[in-house]
Amino acid sequence: MNFPSKLVERAVEQVSRLPSIGPKSALRIVMQLLKADPSQTDELAEALRDLRHNIQYCQKCHAISDGPVCNTCLDVRREQSVICVVEQTRDVLAIENTNQYKGLYHVLGGVISPIEGIGPSDLYIASLLSRIAQEEVKEVILALSTTMEGDTTAFYLAKKIREQGVKVSTIARGIPMGGELEYADELTLGRSIMTRRELDS
Amino acid sequence: MNFPSKLVERAVEQVSRLPSIGPKSALRIVMQLLKADPSQTDELAEALRDLRHNIQYCQKCHAISDGPVCNTCLDVRREQSVICVVEQTRDVLAIENTNQYKGLYHVLGGVISPIEGIGPSDLYIASLLSRIAQEEVKEVILALSTTMEGDTTAFYLAKKIREQGVKVSTIARGIPMGGELEYADELTLGRSIMTRRELDS
């Protein structure tokens, strides 16, 4: 593309490095910022810098936090005996938005992936096991991706956690709500038949 | 949405003010920045600030420019007797990318819109007319939106430009290339019949 200005070109280049923003959207964003009040650009730039340099992670569950320990971990009204293990903070947000879970969390920081060279020691697994040893944990719920790597990680964790005599469960996998059987992939459909539940009478 | 941190909330809020980015995409962008090297965020913030505060507009055609006069206006190889009138710099880029036009440009900065309170004096119309009076202009091509406001502006400009004895043309409107008649709106189809051209033999 021919840019009318090096400043525009550089801004478009930087914006289009963001996920799911192509060069056309980036140009639209840049042009929109040029039309709007300069304070909008300043506030955006400041918010991003501030975020990147001042972000903290909870010492207990490793989720993104405003202080050394996050609000969820500090909340005494939450069930202290259940820990839900997830890959990243975004998953905590997703589960919180369902309003179906009132226990604690533990963010692994990823999943075991031999191909990418990520082993158990690269994840927050040791701190999870020591939380289980020190706190009164009765159940650990694994809420990991339903991928090969997610399953490997779940298998690894389940073994370690059961050694400490704690119950391990995994979130249900199956046909999504509102989903039509016709469009479900064979793996999901097969698994949902194997793990069928008796209907409440 | 429940945010794990005020820093994340503020960043998501600012990012989702950008065009065509909703709160979910904004969160994805923010999380991606947190994963990437801090230098990426710094470069992005710097590029946006620099763009917003140091951008210049060409004194002649009012397009975005790196200097007082833009490269297109400075390029003596371009046809100096034709001016293509557009609404915004983005339209200049779009036409440049076609490689079909070698004349000069003039950016109006918008279109006449009584509803939004934009009159001829709010646009770069006076400077267009003085360019036509001072330079050796033979033809002015109007490349404005095919909306009510665009048509009003074209009508207004055509009258003023013809008073100076200069030819006025407008870009062709019709069925887009590769477009199927079935899916064309009635207005476009009707107009394309009215403005039909004899086929080259």
Mean of residue pLDDT of chain A? Answer: 90
Radius of gyration of chain A: 22 Å
Structural class of chain A: alpha/beta
DSSP summary, beta strand count of chain A: 6
Low-confidence stretches of chain A: none
Spatial separation of the terminal alpha carbons of chain A:
65 Å
Q: What is the succession of H and E elements of chain A?
A: HHHEEHEHEHEHEH
Instruction: Bin the helical content of chain A.
Output: 40-55%
Overall body shape of chain A = globular
Instruction: Output the CATH class name of the largest domain in chain A.
Output: Alpha Beta
User: What's the helix count of chain A?
Assistant: 8
Please report which band the strand proportion of chain A falls in: under 5%, 5-15%, 15-25%, 25-35%, 35-45% or over 45%.
5-15%
In the CATH hierarchy, the third-tier topology of the largest domain in chain A is known as Dna Topoisomerase Vi A Subunit, Chain: A, domain 2
CATH architecture of the largest domain in chain A: 3-Layer(aba) Sandwich
Give the largest interface pair and sizes.
A-B, 59 and 59 residues
Characterize the biggest β-sheet of chain A: 4 strands, parallel
| Number of structural units classed as domains of chain A | 2
- Strands of the biggest beta sheet of chain A: in what spatial order? 4-3-5-6
